[in-house]
TrEMBL record:
Gene3D superfamilies registered for this protein in UniProt: 1.10.10.410, GatB domain, N-terminal subdomain
Protein name: Aspartyl/glutamyl-tRNA(Asn/Gln) amidotransferase subunit B
One GO BP: glutaminyl-tRNAGln biosynthesis via transamidation
Gene behind this protein: gatB
EC number: 6.3.5.-
SUPFAM superfamilies the UniProt entry points to: GatB/YqeY motif, Glutamine synthetase/guanido kinase
PROSITE patterns cross-referenced by the UniProt entry: GATB (PS01234)
SMART domains: GatB_Yqey
Subunit relationships: Heterotrimer of A, B and C subunits.
InterPro entries linked to this entry: Asn/Gln-tRNA_amidoTrfase_suB/E, Asn/Gln-tRNA_Trfase_suB/E_cat, Asn/Gln_amidotransferase, Asn/Gln_tRNA_amidoTrase-B-like, GatB, GatB_C_1, GatB_Yqey_C_2, Gln-tRNA_amidoTrfase_suB_CS
Protein family according to the UniProt entry: Belongs to the GatB/GatE family. GatB subfamily.
Primary role: Allows the formation of correctly charged Asn-tRNA(Asn) or Gln-tRNA(Gln) through the transamidation of misacylated Asp-tRNA(Asn) or Glu-tRNA(Gln) in organisms which lack either or both of asparaginyl-tRNA or glutaminyl-tRNA synthetases. The reaction takes place in the presence of glutamine and ATP through an activated phospho-Asp-tRNA(Asn) or phospho-Glu-tRNA(Gln).
Length: 481
């Protein structure tokens, strides 16, 4: 991407865990409630309150660690990370410093047909802060409102090694990470709701340099598109500065999507001193091997394993398998259809084509569609048996998607069965030829391609219900007489 410089990127990804309650209290862990309605003295840090650790949050971080090939610590503890900010009512965050639950993992990604292994330094468990709503742009807002509902939400922070060398690799890593977390069910990863967000550290250095350049940190990006744009812009911004002989100032920046550029939030010459010390109100956590083994047994087949299965067992192309397995719900839907209709390639074509198109247009997920996978299997069976044409199948499928009706009912009620009866088609074909005598002369004069025109005219005359193969056969018979 840069001609004379090498990019180095590391990501710190925050994922909210999908527990029923918060990490240290009984408040609901729920998005979208009225501001400041899911709070209590514990998560607000009022004097005299004590935290109680949510066991499911620990189970979920261990599950994430195992899915990401991490080493799981059998002894871990919590620490206080001290800093002042309006969305942090206690003026400290219960987090983990030197003894996190998970260390030394990895994720394998593929970009431009090249495989890359991205190391994971650590995964630690902490409580989330509140949410600030700014009156204006974050860099120059006149005022801000704070909602403490998110305070105390269990959060895992996944810290990568600085192994990514392009914005595209960073996006591929984040997509793969999101997919894995969704597969194991520890987070809904709704980026639009802040359940998954990323901070990126980026630096550039001259090609061949043994030392990394000065890094800048891009904060709280919550879409793949924004992350790729922000990293691309920041790399080029740093390139321009170095080309002019200027220094990169270490600091924190934000991405302004409207302006299409990063903006400085604050400069920091050295890392923050958070004055970490062990959390005095929580005992260390001892994780038994038997518990780790039990959690490991609950991990389903992950995207890479499923992808391999689809290629080897179902015989679909690697690209199809990668697209489908990236989304667990889509993969579940695909498998359910294949269980009823055994042409996996035909199923993958529909899942990646018409089905994905309608999902995107209607902003719904595969698990929330109105019809069952068996209905799509039945539709494909009807198409294969020439009950309906390919064109009609798409029309029926869209109605299935919008209404939840089964395909047989739609075809019957709307009279969409394919016309395959030769005697019925013969009359229509003769009419088409009669109305297009000049095209008939063209055909007889040697232009055999004109038969496509006749097929189209016949399909139009039958509103797409004619069997195109039968139509073509009849046309050839009539034209060769």
């Amino acid at each position: 991407m840069l001609e004379d410089y090498e990019i180095t990127i590391g990501l710190e990804v925050h994922a909210q865990l999908a527990t029923n309650t918060k990490i240290f209290c009984g408040c609901k862990n729920e998005f979208g409630a009225e501001p400041n309605t899911h709070t209590c003295p514990v998560c607000l840090g009022l004097p005299g309150t004590l935290p109680v650790l949510n066991e499911q949050a620990v189970e979920y971080i261990i599950k994430a660690g195992l899915a990401l090939d991490c080493e799981i610590a059998t002894f871990s503890k919590f620490d206080r990370k001290n800093y002042f900010y309006p969305d942090l009512p206690k003026a400290y965050q219960i987090s983990q410093f030197d003894l996190p639950f998970c260390e030394a993992g990895e994720i394998d990604i593929q970009v431009d047909d090249e495989d890359h292994e991205i190391g994971i330094t650590r995964i630690h468990l902490e409580e989330d802060a509140g949410k600030l709503t700014h009156a204006g742009d974050i860099s120059n807002a006149d005022s801000s409102l704070v909602d403490y509902n998110r305070v105390g939400t269990p959060l895992i922070e996944i810290v990568s090694e600085p192994d990514m060398k392009s914005p595209q690799q960073a996006v591929a890593y984040l997509k793969k990470l999101k997919s894995i977390l969704e597969y194991i069910g520890v987070s809904d990863c709704e980026m639009s709701e802040g359940s998954l967000r990323a901070d990126a550290n980026l630096s550039i250095a001259p090609n061949g340099s043994e030392e990394l350049g000065t890094k800048t940190e891009l904060k709280n990006m919550n879409s793949f598109k924004a992350i790729e744009k922000a990293l691309t812009y920041e790399a080029k911004r740093q390139e321009k500065l170095l080309d002019k002989g200027e220094e990169i100032v270490q600091g924190t920046r934000t991405w302004d999507d409207e302006a299409g550029k990063t903006l400085a939030l604050r400069e920091k010459e050295e890392a923050h001193d958070y004055r970490y010390f062990p959390e005095p109100d929580l005992v260390p956590v001892i994780v038994k091997d038997s518990w780790i083994k039990g959690i490991k047994n609950t991990i389903p087949a992950l995207p890479d394993e499923r992808k391999e299965q689809y290629v080897e067992e179902f015989g679909i192309p690697e690209y199809d398998a990668e697209v489908i397995t990236a989304d667990r719900e889509l993969a579940d839907f695909f498998e359910a259809v294949v269980a009823k209709f055994d042409d996996a390639k035909e199923v993958s074509n529909w899942v990646m084509g018409e089905f994905s198109r309608l999902l995107n247009e209607n902003e719904v997920t595969p698990a929330n569609v109105e019809f069952a996978p068996a209905d799509l299997a039945k539709l494909l069976e009807m198409k294969e048996e020439d009950v309906i044409s390919s064109k009609i199948a798409k029309k029926v499928f869209e109605k299935m998607f919008n209404t939840g009706q089964d395909p047989e009912t739609i075809v019957e009620e709307e009279g969409l069965k394919q016309i395959s009866d030769s005697s019925e088609l013969e009359e229509i074909v003769e009419g088409v030829l009669e109305d297009n005598q000049s095209a008939v002369e063209d055909y007889k004069g040697g232009n055999k391609n004109v038969i496509g025109f006749f097929v189209g005219q016949t399909m139009q005359a039958t509103q797409g219900k004619a069997n195109p193969q039968k139509v073509k056969e009849l046309l050839r018979e009539k034209l060769e007489e």
